[in-house]
Here is the input.
Amino acid sequence: MSIADSRRSSAGGRVPCSADADSSSCALGEDEIERGLDVFHRFRWAVQADYFAGRIATRDMTGIEDPRENEMGMLAAREFLVD
Here is the structure.
């Protein structure tokens, strides 16, 4: 079985969407993608909020020079989630 065949069988006979695919060949329809996109974005920002909350609570400075960078990440997540 080729990789393409295994992808088709795992997606119910349709290959998952790729950047260059037309929506008729995707595992998800365009309407499903539109409906789920806002939910996905909110979930992703919630994950970011949790990540930065943990960094702030533990005073984690890995990869940054100023603790305000963690605060800025938390504020960005909050701004998205509050809107």
Summary: Helices lie at 3-10, 30-57, 68-82. Residues 1-11 have pLDDT under 50 and may be disordered. The radius of gyration is 19 Å.
